[in-house]
Design goal:
The structure holds two protein chains of two kinds.
Chain A: E1 2-4, H1 11-21, E2 25-27, H2 34-43, H3 50-63, E3 69-73, H4 84-94, E4 100-104, H5 111-122, H6 128-155, H7 162-178, H8 182-204, E5 210-211, E6 214-220, H9 222-226, H10 234-240, E7 243-247, H11 251-258, H12 273-277, H13 289-301, E8 306-312, H14 316-332, E9 336-341, H15 347-362, E10 370-371
Chain B: E1 5-12, E2 16-23, E3 28-35, H1 40-54, E4 60-67, H2 71-78, E5 82-83, H3 86-97, E6 103-107, E7 112-118, E8 121-127, H4 136-146, H5 150-158, H6 171-184, H7 188-206, E9 217-220, H8 227-237, E10 241-242, H9 250-265, E11 283-289, E12 298-304, E13 307-312
Parallel strand pairs in B: 1-4, 4-5, 6-9, 9-10
Antiparallel strand pairs in B: 1-2, 2-3, 6-7, 7-8, 11-12, 12-13
Helix pairs in contact in B: 3-9, 5-7, 5-8, 6-7, 7-8
Classes of the chains: A alpha/beta, B alpha/beta.
Chain lengths: ~375, ~350
């Protein structure tokens, strides 16, 4: 058995870690690219949502390295993601690829069902103790990755050299991918925080005043906001425009809530969102529609300058959320922009909208809010 | 042209390239409207040639702003002091013309947008996303199909006795519906007026959805020349629509104002304008796909007589930043593979 899985941002690092610590052979597909999308779009129904197209592309690219089993998580409620595993299996079979598909989800909310599937993947060679240990280790790494990603969110508008920031991020991810012990993970996070801090100090020495960066909250469909290829790199782009971003959902927050039924909170737990959403959207609408609205409310209350909602064309839960957001915008007087992506999305169009949105947020405060000192990057990333 | 110092605004879009000269006294001295025809570099150069022939020998350009989808290209060629997206540029122009304006409806060649302003500041905006139904290009196409010049389109629409309903959600279906209505024997003005109404409905349902449209309302962009659309907007919104004098070049005008803001504010700042002789220089563009990472960015290079003037298109900026530093001269192979 050679296991592969779909990409979603940094998730591959966590999944690879999990399988490797269980001694399961794993194939990490090449990162999402135009090639991946082209391969997937060819097989997928035209009206399918973007993540499905990328998933299919990932599997086909993984076949070249001998992958024969797909592991994917499931979904609940009126969102097509719940059917991905089965639909993908059938599409691939019709195209001549015979994969075994294992959907990691608690069937009917049963953690026991989940355990059985994990047992199937892990085989008899692993004891339950070692499976639990591997899960815990992967989870810790996941939280650490989210911390690092959020530190980068803070660093992008504050560090002078954007290429250097991305290099530090890539290096941080590499270190975490290679970390084999809990201490290794902790050391990696500490050293990334230190080097970001040093870079900021070095850059700040030459400046006598600082502009507080604008803060924008990114909300929307999880795959789109977690995967930089799908989001056309808007977090990086906003960073370059001098904006600090935060996101409604981080990988560990989702994994903790979704797969482990809230047993582990993860980074930026999503548990409070439904209650924030209550006055605007009082019930579950599938996917993360309600969480999106709740996150918008939370960002607005925390004084964010603006909010951007992001989702793939035809994503039903997010369409419901999008129709509620104007009321959030009005209630809290916070600008909210919705961006929709699909395989035809051009970078230029997104760029124009981001620039215009940042202008919108900036122009009222052209009075030049300068400060003589400022908060450091290193305060971000704490849980 | 009395006073000899001007700010140049350039709006280079998919369909048209507009140039505006703004005097130091905030007077619009010259407007140029050229068809881009898929050759933005040549069109900009042609524009500069025309501009040069029209202004006096002693005239000086003291600031340049560019906007439009080819704003970066235009900025490279011209040497711009400000590069701004078209939403901000349009908003700046409108609020300078009339500070009380609260809504801007803008329909251009391939995009349409709505901008909401409060107290002269943009508070909300939207642009058409995945569909270009109901933009200038579609009107152009339909006018050509019906054999009427685009300039007469709107006037004819105003003559309609009873406009008929056209399915306007998608331009392909709108066209087949129009053909069907023609075949039923409806009069041309009624069909044209129906098309105008369908376009306006489509615009308000897509771009204008959930937007708080309050007067004074400006209507700008090339399509504002069409009185049929203007009338349809007035009927649908129940409010008067103002078409500003320079409606077709508001983006360029906004860019000129932004250049004035930037250069005017810092008196020691000299313009980066590359001179009026740039109409005669040989420019070339070429592109390649970077293989540095999975993004596979398409990098564009602009060359001036063989040497690289600018690069863009790379998300990480390694090509763009390397211009003039002597690195990345050729296509290097960077092995940034993931550690899988």
């Amino acid at each position: 058995m050679k296991v592969t899985f779909p990409h979603m941002g940094n998730a591959w690092i966590v999944i690879q870690t999990l399988f490797e610590s269980l001694n399961i052979e794993v194939v990490v597909p090449p990162m999402n690219s135009k090639q991946t999308l082209t391969l997937g779009a060819k097989l997928a129904p035209e009206a399918a949502c973007l993540p499905l197209k990328l998933n299919l592309g990932n599997y086909i690219e993984a076949v070249r390295d001998g992958a024969d089993t797909i592991v994917i998580t499931g979904g609940i409620g009126p969102c097509r993601f719940g059917y991905y595993g089965e639909i993908e299996r059938q599409i691939l079979r019709e195209a001549g690829y015979h994969f075994d598909v294992v959907t990691l989800e608690p069937p009917d909310g049963s953690l026991r069902g989940l355990a059985q599937r994990i047992r199937y993947l892990a085989g008899e060679k692993n004891s339950w103790a070692s499976i639990l240990k591997a899960l815990r280790f992967a989870y810790l790494k996941c939280v650490a990755l989210d911390q690092v990603e959020d530190m980068i969110h803070a660093a992008r508008p504050r560090l002078a050299d954007s290429q250097e920031t991305e290099r530090l991020y890539a290096e941080g991810k590499k270190r975490l991918a290679q970390a084999m012990t809990v201490k290794g993970i902790q050391d990696s996070v500490r050293s990334i925080r230190q080097s970001l801090h040093d870079h900021q100090m070095a850059g700040d020495k030459n400046a006598d005043k600082f502009q507080k960066p604008l803060r924008i909250g990114i909300i929307g469909e999880i795959y789109t906001i977690l995967d930089p290829f799908t989001s056309v790199g808007i977090e990086e782009e906003l960073g370059r425009l001098g904006v600090e971003v935060d996101r409604s959902i981080y990988l560990s927050g989702w994994v903790g809530n979704h797969i482990f039924q809230g047993l582990a909170p993860g980074y930026r737990s999503i548990r409070s969102y439904p209650s924030h959403a209550k006055p605007f959207l009082s019930h579950f609408v599938g996917g993360h529609g309600q969480e999106t609205v709740g996150a918008a409310v939370k960002f607005a209350r925390e004084g964010f300058d603006g909010i951007i909602q992001l989702f793939p064309l035809s994503c039903m839960p997010e369409i419901v959320a999008a129709s509620v957001l104007p009321r959030v915008q009005e209630t809290y007087q916070v600008p909210i922009m919705t961006l929709i992506v699909d395989e035809h999305t051009g970078h230029a169009g997104i760029q124009t909208r981001l620039e215009a949105f940042v202008d919108l947020l900036e122009r009222p405060s052209l009075k030049d809010i300068s400060e003589t000192s400022r908060e450091g990057v290193s305060v971000v990333g704490e849980r | 042209m009395g006073n000899d110092n001007y700010y140049l605004g350039a709006d280079v879009g998919s369909v048209s390239t507009n140039l505006v000269l703004l005097s130091e006294k905030n007077e619009v001295a010259l407007t140029l409207y050229l068809r881009t025809q898929g050759r933005p570099m040549q069109t900009i150069q042609e524009g500069i040639k025309v501009l040069r022939s029209k202004i006096g020998k002693s005239a000086k350009i003291i600031g340049v702003g560019t906007t439009g989808s080819a704003r970066q290209l235009a900025a490279t060629l011209l040497g711009a002091d400000v590069i701004k997206n078209e939403i901000t540029a349009h908003a700046v122009a409108a609020s300078r013309v009339n500070p009380s304006v609260q809504t801007i409806l803008e329909i251009g060649g391939q995009d349409s947008k709505i901008i909401i302003l409060r107290d002269g500041v943009v508070s909300d905006f939207a642009m058409n996303t995945v569909c270009a139904a109901g933009t200038g290009s579609f009107l152009d196409q339909q006018a050509a199909r019906l054999g009427i010049p685009i300039e007469e389109f709107g006037q004819l629409a105003l003559e309609a006795a009873s406009p008929i309903k056209i399915a306007g959600r998608c331009s392909v279906f709108a066209e087949s519906d129009m053909i069907h209505k023609q075949q039923l024997g409806h009069a041309l003005p009624d069909i044209l007026a129906g098309l105008c109404q369908a376009m306006v409905r489509n615009y308000l349902n897509n771009v204008g959805k959930n937007k708080d449209i309050r007067g004074p309302i400006f209507f700008q962009g090339g399509v504002a020349a069409n009185p049929g659309i203007r009338k349809a907007f007035e009927e649908e919104l129940g409010q008067p629509i103002i078409v500003p004098e320079h409606f077709g070049v508001m983006g360029a005008l906004g860019a000129a104002y932004l250049a004035q803001e930037k250069v005017g504010r810092q008196s020691e700042l000299r313009t980066r304008f590359r001179g009026l002789q740039l109409g005669e220089i040989q420019f070339n563009a070429r592109s390649f796909e970077c293989s540095g990472c999975a993004n596979r960015c398409e990098v564009v290079e602009i060359l001036q007589e063989g040497s690289i003037l600018a690069r863009w298109g790379d998300r990480c900026g390694k090509w763009a930043n390397a211009v003039g530093k002597g690195t990345y001269k050729g296509k290097s192979q960077e092995g940034e593979q993931q550690g899988a």
